[in-house]
Amino acid sequence: MAWPGWGARAIASGVSALAGAGAGLVTDAASRRPTLPWIAGFAVLVLLMAGSQIWLTLVDGRSPPDRRVRAGGVVVGGSSRAAIVTDVAGIRQVPGAPAGGQSVIGSGAVLVEKVSAGEIRTRVRDVEER
User: Fold this and answer.
1) How far apart are CA 84 and CA 76, in angstroms?
2) What pLDDT, in 10s, does the model give residues 69-113?
């Protein structure tokens, strides 16, 4: 059975949350009686939280999967606030099968990975794709 793609991120998020809770407890104990072990424990927990958050940020910045975008197709890798308008007419294609791991974004299609706050209008006329 393969490890799910979200599994490592879930573990890193859990580690960060537990380290944050632990850091709160250690901060309380260290402020009552500041000794070297409490201060060292606090530093380790802070480094653990920072490291897991840096790792999560790097994982989220990975390159998107391979995509074939057909005529007039739009892919926004993040969020969009602007209006997106596509107008496609008279396209004749023989695209072939996508290679392994590729997805196909059709003619005039719009894909916004995160949040779209703007208007999206598409118009596709006389398009024949085989």
Assistant:
1) 10
2) 777 778 887 788 888 888 877 766 555 655 555 677 777 778 787
Q: What is the pLDDT of residues 40-77, one digit of tens each?
A: 988 998 898 888 888 887 776 665 566 777 777 788 87
Residue ranges making up the domain that contains 56:
7-60
Report yes or no on 2 lying in a domain.
Answer: no
State whether 55 and 72 are in the same domain.
Answer: no
53 with 30, same domain: the answer is yes
Q: Is 66 exposed, middle or buried (0-12, 13-18, 19+ CB in 10 A)?
A: exposed
pLDDT at 102: 62
Torsional sign, CA 15, 38, 28, 50: negative
- Residue 65 CA from chain centroid, whole number: 11
Total domains present in the chain: 2
Q: What is the CA radius of gyration of the chain?
A: 24
Angle at 59 between CA 50 and CA 98, to 5 degrees: 175
Q: Is 122 in the same domain as 73?
A: yes
Q: Are 23 and 49 in contact, with CB atoms under 8 Å apart?
A: yes
